[in-house]
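BUG-724 | component: ligand-complex export | severity: low

The export step for magnesium ion jobs runs without errors, but we want the raw record kept on the ticket for reference. Input record follows.
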Amino acid sequence: MATFRQRALNEAATHMSERFFVEKGPVSSYFGQNVFDQKIMRRYMSQPAYEAVLSAVEKGTKIDRSVANEIASGMKNWAIERGATHYTHIFQPLTGATAEKHEAFVSVKDGQAFEKFSGSALVQQEPDASSFPNGGLRNTFEARGYSAWDPSSPVFILDETLCIPSVFVSYTGEALDMKVPNLKSLQALSNSATAVANLFDPSVKSVSVNLGLEQEYFVVDEALYNARPDLVLCDRTVIGHTAAKDQQLSDHYFGAIPSRVEAFMKDFETEAYKLGIQLETRHNEVAPNQFECAPVFCEATKAIDQNMLLMIVMQKVSEKHHLKVLFHEKPFDGVNGSGKHCNWSMRTDSNVNLLSPGKTTAQTMQFLAFYSSVLKAVHDYHFLLMTSVCTLSNSYRLGGHEAPPAIMSVFSGSTLSKVFDSIIKTKCLPKDKAIKESIKIVASVPEIFPDNTDRNRTSPFAFTGNRFEFRAVGSSMNVAGAAFVINSIVAESLKKFKSEVDALEAKGESRSDAIMDVVRNFIIDAKSIMFEGNGYSREWQEEAAKRGIKAVTNVPDAFDIYKDKETISLFENLGVLTSAEISSRYEVLNETYVKKLQIEARVMGDICLNHVIPASVTYQNILMQSIKGAKEVFGNEYADICKSDIDTYKKISSYVNSLSSDVESLVEARKKANVIESISERAKVYSRDVQDQMAKVRNSADHLEMLVDDELWPLPKYRELLFF
Ligand code: ADP
Ligand code: MG
């Protein structure tokens, strides 16, 4: 057998199930031990310093430099006691990943070594960060980017390094990361939502967002992964014939977890617990070797940072197990892709979930105010919201096997739908019996939902009882990219809600009448985004188009929404992004798209020329020997005797010929695209010409995989990658 694949398979067979991170005692005895949380803070700093941090976390107040020194010293003492030698500002540049540059605590003066960490080092760093994507916001001669501590997310220790969650901004203060717009959108949402909540309860001071992020992922053996250049370089297979059996029997979903993976899960859960990540569920997903874990929801910034951290922890722990975790949205064609369901809700400072239907009429009206505002937001900005999850990798997943389509819609469930119909038909709440009747139904919603009978898993944006679940987010994404859009559009919608209620009240309407009128108007406005049926069906695609709901059919085309006046004024008015920041993001999105596709296309060409064609030709030579031998022995009868060999030889020739000319055309398509000056135009040409050509290449390569002797095939096959 081809030695590379054979060696990989032999090595994979030696990898056993084993635990590496085992802690004594119950989880509660080590949960959060590597987090500098409030309890630990109190032990390591004075009351004023502790209060300064608390106020920064809760109210966003600035931390004074003098206090910063004391905070830094407390952090350092705690970190050193726990074995840390370095510190780093960990930030989230526009690459979508996290970035860190470690600095040693140790300092030597007059031959004496001591550990040093000042307040200014805690508060701000200037990493030599000129290579991060910035979409033209910085010129290299003034390439300074600053990372600054974000106290709203806890400091922690990972691998002997004190990690300080940070924002990343340019010298002139523009956002160069995913975190800043998200923090600003949370503030904008809090402002608008508090104003609406005050219509019902004047004591509400702020509103925050809760996120629960379910993480799907694939796991493959490390030796097999290393034998696939496409997995190593692109995180996905660019060629590979589907296995005879994959997910058709649904026997993997919720099945017994393979023991190697279970050991891996237990190990990364242990490490996550130490970092204060409250993982709650683990299970097999639909595709073979696909799994999911979910933490308990928490405040948005923390939830996102913890998700980014969890992905790092999973990757690190997987190495011990000789496994590779794939966060890519579509590592394997023909089976389900992976998402990161984003459960989103709003909560007041007094801990009231504003998306909880409630029992009393007042609570129900409040619920309807917030619910209708979300509906209107998703309706008015449906294309922007869908675009927020558009990346090259997620485009392979959306609309594919059991993934939401790239068409936005909201699922509310039959009970709420009836309520909305009733609100539309009859006018205002208090006077009408029918509405009162329907309100009773709303009040019973909490009892109806928990049994999960009223759920629609085909909807990209579904209400699940007390939160919305945005299911189109991709598994590899930094959720901040989608969350800041949800927060912003809902903030905008709530702003409108408040001003419309104010206007009606000014005209003399009672508050409750005014609220119900605006709820009704918002529901009417948003009617076309509501869809209760099968989101995966072709009928829905046609129906959505009729309703004016725009689908994302091409990713770089979709990015153009960031150039729309409406988008720019939305983010500018809310103070979330300036127009310069938006256009920088637009550039980065296009650039990343092109670069990733360019890498995939190159890898595909290389694999075909260096692996697929040589193996195919080797097999052809074997066939030729057999045909020649038959001719020597049987004379003219050889053609009948070797019919199958001759047929196979010819088929291989035909695929090899088309493969090599398709690879050539792929290179040509890339070269032609590469000279296009405008990055957005280049991305559009890549998405069409380069991707079309890649599909042709893959078709021939996958046919050859079926024709060539298994012994000679150099790349681990799907059936080997996907089953333990
Ligand atoms: P399912 O797969 O059925 O959607 P999971 O238990 O896998 O359910 O995930 C549900 C996620 O939603 C969890 O992270 C959970 O903590 C989170 N969640 C529950 N309630 C809320 C809420 N009010 N706001 C945000 N997230 C929530
Ligand atoms: Mg879910």
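Assignee comment: Attached the raw record above. Residues 210-212, 214, 281, 294-297, 341, 343, 345, 353, 466-467 surround adenosine-5'-diphosphate (ligand 1) (CB under 6 Å).
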